[in-house]
């Protein structure tokens, strides 16, 4: 084998090995085709989530309330019970253009920081029932996931369906924890 053939063979073997161990890039998280933000507005109860740093103090009774504003954005108020009482975070959401309201970006940082892209978090509506009573929300990074309902509890069948749909979208649902009402 000459030197060129050795280099070619080594390169091909290396590429084959890298292909075998390299992570497969997942397809993009799919969202619902459209969302009526007026129907989506109101109070939602957290049923389950992938744990995250900004909710680590929350022990129970986690809710999110959405209220459309005249400027097209949405006021967001998240609340939960903590060991010290009630924790509340107020923010704003904006629709990602071209998403038919199914992809939002949410900011809880002060308004004067809104020009910094990293203060906006992705909030993608992946599943939403026709009655606007049960929703699964995630992020394209698959780092965040929530199952929300208009009621503090849902049936085990509804929960399993939501989790199975998130699994099909590539979320690590082994990390999901049920929230306490």
Written account of the structure:
- With 181 residues, this protein is of the alpha+beta class.
- The protein has helices spanning 3-21, 37-40, 156-168, and strands spanning 42-49, 60-68, 74-82, 85-95, 103-107, 120-128, 134-138, 145-149, 177-178.
- It has an 8-stranded antiparallel beta barrel.
- The model is unreliable at 1-25 (pLDDT under 50).
What tags apply to this protein structure?
3 helices, 8-stranded antiparallel beta barrel, 181 residues, disordered N terminus, alpha+beta, single chain
**Main β-sheet, spatial strand arrangement:** 1-2-3-4-5-6-7-8
- The stretches of 5 or more residues where confidence is low (pLDDT under 50) are 1-25
Number of strands: 9
Number of helices: 3
SSE pattern, N- to C-terminal: HHEEEEEEEEHE
Structural class: alpha+beta
The average pLDDT score comes to 87
Radius of gyration: 21 Å
Give the terminus-to-terminus CA distance. Answer: 70 Å
What spatial form do the alpha-carbon principal axes imply? globular
Helix content: 10-25%
Strand content: 25-35%
Largest sheet: 8 strands, antiparallel, barrel
Topology:
Layout: H1 3-21, H2 37-40, E1 42-49, E2 60-68, E3 74-82, E4 85-95, E5 103-107, E6 120-128, E7 134-138, E8 145-149, H3 156-168, E9 177-178
Antiparallel strand pairs: 1-2, 1-8, 1-9, 2-3, 3-4, 4-5, 5-6, 6-7, 7-8
Summarize this entry quickly.
Helices cover 20% and strands 35% of the residues. It is of the alpha+beta class and 181 residues long.
């Amino acid at each position: 084998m000459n030197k060129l053939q050795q280099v070619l063979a080594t390169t091909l073997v290396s590429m084959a090995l890298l292909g075998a161990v390299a992570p497969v890039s997942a397809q993009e998280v799919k969202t619902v085709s459209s969302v009526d933000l007026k129907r989506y507005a109101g109070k939602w109860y957290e049923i389950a989530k992938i744990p995250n740093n900004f909710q680590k103090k929350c022990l129970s009774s986690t809710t999110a309330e959405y209220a459309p504003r005249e400027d097209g954005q949405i006021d967001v108020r998240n609340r939960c019970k903590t060991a010290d009482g009630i924790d509340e975070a107020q923010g704003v959401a904006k629709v990602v253009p071209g998403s038919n309201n199914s992809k939002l970006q949410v900011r809880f940082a002060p308004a004067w920081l809104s020009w910094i892209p990293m203060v906006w978090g992705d909030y993608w509506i992946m599943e939403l029932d026709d009655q606007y009573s049960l929703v699964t929300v995630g992020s394209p990074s698959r780092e965040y996931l929530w199952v929300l309902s208009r009621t503090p509890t849902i049936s085990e069948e509804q929960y399993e369906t939501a989790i199975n749909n998130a699994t099909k979208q590539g979320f690590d649902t082994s990390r999901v924890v049920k929230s306490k009402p």
